[in-house]
Amino acid sequence: MRSIRVWMLVAALTVTVAGGGLVVAGTSSDAPKPAWAAPSSSVVAAAVAVPPATPASSAPALSLGASALGASDQAKRISQLNAALKSVKGEFSVAVYDRKTGLRYVHRGSVKFDTASIVKVQVLACMLLKAQDAGRGPTSAEMKLAGPMIRLSDNNATTSLYNRIGGRNAVTKCNKRLGLTQTVVNARWGLTKTTAADQIRLLEELVDTKGPLSASSRKTAFTLMNTVNKAQDWGVPVVTRTGEIFTVKNGWDTRTADGGLWAVNTIGRITSKNGRVDVSIAVLTRRNKNMTTGVKLTERIAKLTRQHLRY
Predict the structure, then answer these.
(1) Parallel, antiparallel, or unpaired: how do β-strands 278-288 and 91-98 relate?
(2) Which residues pair with 267 in a beta bridge?
(3) What pLDDT score does 294 carry?
């Protein structure tokens, strides 16, 4: 079953164009962070097999943090997920961070994928940081763009806000503050390259009380990502259970460079009121036959992470 949503007061938004994940050309010029690159020495897990079409240099990366779980239990869960992912066809990357147990899982986490519309979360975070730097909250004009950008994936609103905050150069500088070391911003924002590991870092900044985003900014991001349009309520939300709360941003786009095949991505968080669940998930895919195929792939992978990591 899908989760309940936490509906919070959101400013009234006037929407003129409901966008998807299509690329729009921009006019502008160009708690401690998870140690994704350093596997725990206490746990050894088999790497996940890379799909045949993937170059050897794209081999999966696995990283684990200090966990409330015993090392053997943690390794068992990871081994089970590794085995399950071997049977999944398609080009994908997935990262999971369980804040309650400390378990971190990455499959091909350093391989770059096109963001499509998940980059809109970066744009939102950078807008909020820019407002903070000016000693203010976001203006009504900024929120009239940010709301449709996240809730409806409005491309025109995204382009306007992207340019308003300074475009590629500004978002690149902002990403450094957010700890996104593997994300390369493109002037055509939907062609930004990122990794599953970086998307987990971004999701964690949205809840990190010691991070650069203020409590007010974190609340704004949560509100928008928790109230996406029902038509875009797919991907991460599929693994939520009764009483749990989700945030999500999805992205989808056809790529000429891939012969018109689809990039389909989902990022988000799942939490529970009783505090038992507190998980960030990022699933990136590419070269899907169509959007429907891509959505099914992201959801299958997300379900497997919950089944085997048992969060």
Answers:
(1) antiparallel
(2) 249, 282
(3) 98
Q: Which residues contact 311 (CB under 8 A, 6 or more apart)?
A: 96, 98, 100, 101, 103, 270, 277, 279, 305
CA nearest to 129, candidates 165, 155, 157 = 165
Average pLDDT of the chain to the nearest whole number:
84
Which pair of structure tokens corresponds to residue 271?
A: 């939490």
Specify whether the CB–CB gap between 24 and 189 falls below 8 A. yes
CATH (residue range 60-309)? 3.40.710.10
pTM for this structure? 0.81
Q: Return the SS3 of 184.
A: strand
DSSP reduced 3-state for 16 = coil
Phi-psi region at 164: left, alpha or beta (left = phi > 0; alpha = psi -120 to 50)? alpha
Phi first, then psi: what are they for 106, rounded to 5°?
Answer: -140, 130
List, as own/partner pairs, every contact residues 49-55 make where C-beta atoms lie below 8 angstroms and the sequence separation is at least 24, other chains included: 49/85, 49/86, 50/108, 51/89, 51/90, 51/91, 53/91, 53/287, 54/91, 54/108, 54/111
CA angle 66, 72, 74 (to 5 degrees): 50
Burial of residue 133 (CB within 10 Å: 0-12, 13-18, 19+) is exposed
Token match 């928790």: residue? 226
Per the CB < 8 A criterion, the answer to whether 183 and 194 are in contact is yes
Q: 172-184, pLDDT tens digit by residue? A: 999 999 999 999 9
CA angle 38, 96, 258 (to 5 degrees): 95
For residues 281 and 287, is the Cβ–Cβ distance under 8 A?
Answer: no
Q: Report how far Cα 298 is from the mean position of its chain's Cα atoms.
A: 12
Give the Cα separation of 222 and 207 in Å (integer): 9
